[in-house]
Structures are given as C-alpha cells and as structure tokens.
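forwarding from the other thread:

> can someone predict this with magnesium ion?

sure thing
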Amino acid sequence: MGISAEKLPRHVGFIMDGNGRWAQKRGLPRKMGHRAGAEVFKKIADYCREIGIKYVTFYAFSTENWKRPADEVNALMDLFDKYLDDAEEYARRKTRMLFLGDKAPFRESIRQKMLSIEERTREFDSCTVMLAMNYGGRDDIVYAAKRAAELVSSGYMSTDDITEDMFGGLLYTGDAPDVDLVIRPSGEYRLSNFLIWQCAYAEYYFSDVLWPDFTVSDLDRALTAYSDRNRRFGGV
Ligand code: IPE
Ligand code: IPE
Ligand code: MG
C-alpha cells in the first residue's frame, strides 16, 4: 500500500453489507454469510491498524435490523456473543474498542462483554475500532439531544452553550473525528442511517463486491481513490 500517511483518512467507516446475498448465491443459509462477514471484519480491522488508520467504524447491526426474521436476528446475536469473546485479542493488539448504539436491547451476556471490552481497552490510543451495533444515526442524534436538554434543564449550561463541537461530543462517537471515508460494498448506494452527522463531509466509495469477498486489495483501491479526491469543505 503506497499511500503516504498524510493522504490516509483518519477515520474510515465500513458498511458491512452483502452477507445475505453472498450466502444465497452459494445456496447457503444467510447466517453463513454473516459468519463469513465476521471473519472479514477481523482481517480488515487488523489491516487498518497495521497501516496506521487511527479510527475505524464498522456498521454491524442497525436499529432497523431488528425487523429481520427472528431466526436471522438470533443467529446474528449468537455470532456477536461468540466474537465478543476476543477481548483478550483486542487488548493484546492495543486497540481501543468502543460500541456505538444503545446496548440495552442486547441479551445480558452480550451487554456484559461489550462493557468489559470497553473497560479493558480504554487506555489504548493508537487505534480505535468502533462497532456500530443497534446503531442508527437518527437515534444517535436524538440521544445526544436528550443529553443536551438534561444539561440545560439541570442548570449545568445554557442553550447558547450548545455548539456543533459540543453537540458532536455528546454523540456515541464522542471525541472521535468526523468520518473521512465511507466504504460500502454490495452495490448499494445509500447510507442506511449510518453516522449521518459524522459523515457530513465524508467521501464515499462504493463497490459491487459483497462484504464476505472484500479483501485488503479492495481496501487499498478505496484508499487510493480517496487519496486522489479534492476535499474542499465548502472552500475553493
Ligand atoms: C449486512 O449484510 C449485515 C447486516 C445488516 C447485519 P446483509 O444481511 O444486509 O446482506 P444482504 O444485503 O441481505 O445481502
Ligand atoms: C446496513 O445494511 C446495515 C448494516 C450493514 C449493519 P442493510 O442491509 O440493513 O441496509 P438496507 O436495508 O439495504 O438499506
Ligand atoms: Mg443488506
């Protein structure tokens, strides 16, 4: 990967889409696609850390995904339960792990593992991996708005203290920088409620590859495309 450090995005968001179609194409149950997708998550997260991307967010489960048939939701929950046992691994790799979204709807074992991984990796600052689980961009903004309202009603601050920076800090992503690059495989051209505030000035990279087939070479292609973009942020 021949991109200089200053041309690398600071924060990359992955919409891990296409698992179901990947499985269906092979005559397999959709959950097999999720299993294959989880392996790709691990590989891509490792690669991002190796090449020096500081913040990486993976969209794993949206606030809308609860609508899916119960057996698919259950299979996804079993997969999360299993993969969250890798806390040791993240700690060993000195990666800070954060979960974006309301943890309350998850089963107890998953909630406990999420909290313990966040706690055990809190001090690491070279690479932050965020997993968006039960995440929705609108839910994120509503949750932050409620917290801002509480701070005002408790007299801790006034409405004039609500600025873009301050409000951004109340979002699930906290002090993480805005997303620079969103990568969505699977041939869909939409955000699907992913980090809508944080992506206000993001660059987008779409690819037809299904997530379980996504490789580090696909990521290299996305990073190269990103390094050639001219970001203006409204300026000239
Ligand atoms: C993404 O893959 C994973 C989740 C949304 C949990 P999909 O399950 O959406 O796969 P497709 O889009 O149906 O192929
Ligand atoms: C977005 O994928 C959510 C995740 C990848 C977790 P979906 O498959 O749920 O998105 P839509 O329904 O095609 O917009
Ligand atoms: Mg999908």
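The chain is about 40% helix and 15% strand. thats all i got for now
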